[in-house]
Amino acid sequence: MQLLDGKSCSEQIRQEIAQTVSEIRASKDRVPHLAAVLVGNDGASENYVAFKVKDCAEVGFDSTLIRLDATISEQELLDKIDELNRNEAIDGFIVQLPLPAHIDENKVILAIDPAKDVDGFCPENVGKLSLGLPTFISATPNGIMELFRRYDIETEGKNCVVLGRSNIVGTPMAVLMSRNSNPGNATVTIAHSRTKNLTELCASADILIVAIGKTEFVTADMVKPGAVVVDVGQTRVPDDSKKSGFRNVGDVDFENVKDKCSYITYVTGGVGPMTRASLLQNTLKAHQRR
Ligand code: NAP
Predict the structure, then answer these.
(1) Nearby residues of 232 by Cβ (< 8 Å), 6 or more positions away
(2) CATH of the domain at 151
(3) pTM of the model
(4) Looking at residue 86, which CATH number applies to its domain?
């Protein structure tokens, strides 16, 4: 078994980006600028946004964190998005999800200028992804493809099962893996909560990508010997032994699955750092396009 090390891969990507930023600086050009909108103070969202700001500083990007009260009205948030769309100094921005229940997430996503949608969530960017056109690809699936690329994982002709069909992970992941590309060219099945015979289906996968948010759901009997297993899941569970009071648990029973796999990611240092690096790549792309 070999660990797919997202931490070291993402460090390489950051170094490459930092190098490009120093060249931009040397040419006296404006450096890439990412803005992040955080509504309310959900603990996990606070963490994710703090990482995004820190990542920007590390590679030399400018960043702006816009904190809005959880009670903000939908219209006020849409006005803020309009302002960011028109702000020439900002190359791309993200609105951290989930949003408070009184705000329609779809309306918010639709309001973002596709040219600044570095999360790749807008219909225009999702449509371009489906058509195989250049676009901003949602950070998590893009990060997983980059991991496959850098580890030279063979995907062509393989049976790939993507467990989970969310708009931000499972569905774009399946599109990317089925594309005529390398990595890609896999025969892909998307599974979800209504899928029958899940154990048999997963056990038939040469490549199993799991994004369901159910702790240690994938057990050893669901994994084909020699499979490549990617665990996207990240669920906070209380843990008094940690300073933070919690630990992240993946969707795969890592300890019992790992020895069956050719390659596997671990919940820490796997997909998460690749997702963060992908957002930086998208922000750089947004800057270059302008
Ligand atoms: P989501 O929107 O909640 O979607 C979950 C998907 O899993 C749905 O398609 C659901 O099926 C399916 N599902 C739920 N229970 C299932 C079951 N028992 N059997 C089969 N399918 C089941 O999730 P998401 O946003 O994609 O996130 C998934 C996980 O990835 C979460 O733990 C999240 O925290 C994590 N995540 C991690 C990163 C990272 O960077 N590491 C990034 C994004 C997300 P239905 O459609 O039928 O309901």
Answers:
(1) 140, 144, 164, 169, 209, 210, 211, 251, 271
(2) 3.40.50.720
(3) 0.96
(4) 3.40.50.10860
Predicted confidence (pLDDT) at residue 290 exceeds the cutoff of 90: no
pLDDT digits (tens, 9 = 90+) for 44-54: 899 999 999 99
**Among all residues, which ones are annotated catalytic?**
52, 96, 119
Task: Output the residue whose Cα is nearest ligand 1's atom 48.
Answer: 193
Q: Where are the beta strands (DSSP E) in 74-206?
A: 92-95, 159-163, 187-191
Q: Give residues (CB < 6 A) around ligand 1.
A: 140, 163-166, 168-170, 191-194, 211-214, 232-235, 271-272, 275
Is there a single domain that holds both residue 103 and residue 143?
no
One domain for residues 103 and 162? no
What is the extent of the structural domain holding 225?
Answer: 139-272
Mutate which of 145, 189, 212 for ligand 1 pocket (most atoms within 8 A of beta carbon) = 212
Kindly indicate the confidence band of residue 168, based on its pLDDT and cuts at 50, 70 and 90. Answer: very high
Q: Answer yes or no: do 107 and 157 share one domain.
A: no
DSSP helix/strand/coil, 191: strand
Nearest alpha-carbon partner for 139 in 193, 176, 91: 176
What number does the ligand 1 atom closest to the CA of 267 have?
Answer: 41
The tens digit of pLDDT for each residue in 116-137 reads 999 999 999 999 999 999 999 9
